[in-house]
Amino acid sequence: MTFFLDIQTEIQSLPLPRPLFSKEKIIVSQLLAGTEYAVTYLPLLDELRVEDMNDGEMESLLFASSTTNRRYGGDIAQVQLQDEDGIPVMISLVIDQYDQLFELDVWKVDFSLTKNLMPFSGMD
């Protein structure tokens, strides 16, 4: 399963904020599953809008909101995966101080480009 490999070409043709791509929906739904936020946000995955963050092409996302002055409120869930090059990648689903989805934070530990994340088979 390829998560990020072909997203850059899709991004160029969409206005911002944009809907989640199907690969991003998979990640967000996996991270939401089993949390108190699942009931609220899983039914809204098709309606959520995001903007790509300038993070060195690690593919982090900022969830759009009409609320201003948002800031970090906590992590809903985290998972560590491996990219196809074997480098660990941490993915966190983050809420803001108002309990709204805030970021999908993707951090590759060596700060290199995210290529192709391994599937979620080992995710808790």
Order of helices and strands: HEHHEEEEE
The Rg value, from CA coordinates, equals 14 Å
The main sheet comes to: 6 strands, antiparallel
Taking the alpha carbons of the first and last residues, their distance comes to: 18 Å
Question: Residue share in helices?
Answer: 10-25%
Shape: globular
Strand count: 6
Tell me the structural class: alpha+beta
Biggest sheet, spatial arrangement of strands: 1-2-3-6-5-4
**Helical region count?**
3
- Runs with pLDDT <50, length 5+? 1-11
What is the overall pLDDT average?
A: 83
| Beta-strand proportion | 25-35%
Overview of the structural elements:
- This protein has a 6-stranded antiparallel sheet, covered by helices on one side.
- The protein is 16% helix and 30% strand.
- It is an alpha+beta fold and 124 residues long.
- The longest helix has 11 residues, at 22-32.
- The model is unreliable at 1-11 (pLDDT under 50).
Main traits of this protein?
16% helix, 6-stranded antiparallel β-sheet, single chain, disordered N terminus, 3 helices, alpha+beta, globular
How do you describe this structure in short?
The chain has 124 residues and is α+β, with helices and mostly antiparallel strands.
